[in-house]
Design brief:
The protein has 6 helices and 14 strands. The protein has 216 residues and is an alpha+beta fold. It has a single domain, classed as Electron Transport, Fmn-binding Protein, Chain A (Pnp Oxidase, Chain A, Roll). Strand 2 and strand 3 form a beta hairpin. The longest helix has 9 residues.
């Protein structure tokens, strides 16, 4: 099948876009308002987008609380959403009014950051402390229409890792069991059984596929 996204005539029960682009890492974004009220919510349009310095982004459909607080205070954190915390994470996705602290709703403990005021999730095995860089407004579907999507970029200035998950100088991602978002109401989980390693090919190996000898 094929469909034009402008027409959106896919003929399926739900838009398949999110089911195709997945699993997507979940940015469990926490902020604190100018009034000192904590806020947390999961964002599946999230990823790392740069290194040295490290940058992450999360995209908000509508100007939600996390976006507002990050812009006003210049800070946010991202805690790892894991298998053990899947139900806690889901509870924090509720669209409660602005000014409501979702940490108690998710039965979570807010711990102040080391380099930012925004809290991280104490129960999470890893978290990123971020300084807000900028918001980019994405264009609407049709010219002259209202924009629905904003992308928030932040520079990672601090990283928390639970020492229990550092083994032989490396982070044991499988042991932390991070979860990812699929389409519809579906999720996936990373565990030791689902992880595999593949070494990158050398230039010589790659060029040999073309029948060309790599330059010395």
């Amino acid at each position: 099948m094929f469909y034009d996204t402008n027409e959106n005539q896919h003929g399926l029960r739900h838009d398949p876009f999110k089911a195709i682009v997945g699993p997507r890492p979940i940015g469990w974004i926490a902020t604190v308002s100018r009034d000192g009220i904590c806020n947390i919510g999961p964002y599946s349009f999230f990823n790392a987008v740069g290194e040295k310095p490290h940058f992450v982004m999360f995209s908000s459909s509508g100007r939600k609380d996390s976006l507002k607080n990050a812009e006003e205070t210049g800070e946010f954190t991202c805690s790892l959403a894991t298998w053990d915390l899947r139900f806690n994470m889901n509870m924090t996705s509720a669209s409660v009014p602005y000014g409501v602290d979702e940490f108690p709703i998710g039965e979570l403990t807010a711990v102040p950051g080391r380099l930012v005021r925004a809290p991280r999730v104490k129960e999470s095995p890893a978290a990123l402390e971020c300084k807000f860089w900028k918001t980019v407004e994405l264009p609407p579907l049709t010219e002259g229409g209202a924009s629905r999507n904003w992308v928030v970029f932040g520079q990672v200035v601090g990283v928390f890792i639970d020492d229990r998950f550092v083994k032989d100088g490396m982070v044991d991602t499988g042991a932390m069991q991070p979860i990812g978002r699929l389409g519809y109401m579906d999720y996936s989980v990373v565990n030791p059984q689902s992880i595999f390693a593949i070494d990158r090919p050398s230039v010589e190996e790659a060029m040999a596929k073309l029948g060309v000898k790599a330059a010395e």
